[in-house]
Amino acid sequence: MHFRFDAVFYYVSDFERAIRFYSDVLGFKLNSRDAVARFDLNGILFEIVPARDKSKFSGQGNARLCLEVDDVQQALDELRSQGVPTSAAQNKDKGVLASFQDPDGNELCIWQYS
Asked: Would you give the end-to-end CA distance of the chain in angstroms?
């Protein structure tokens, strides 16, 4: 069996709100949209998929989308200026890490290499 990377995806409760968040707030390039929305993130396919049963949607999955940035603090300041709550930056062994959530509670991380 040979595995190849396909995509990272999150289920979302409000499709239109999620598209606006990933397009307008994070600046992801929307490549296509039909039953799902597809974004190109530096050659990686990132998708948002409407949750079929919204009554069971928790937004508490264990996947994380981690985005590399040049300056974590600058990225946090920009996110906060758009009303996105964030964690504080944390110094790690080989860089700096922080996190925030999309409108459905899916966690995203930002990472700055040392």
From this structure: 37
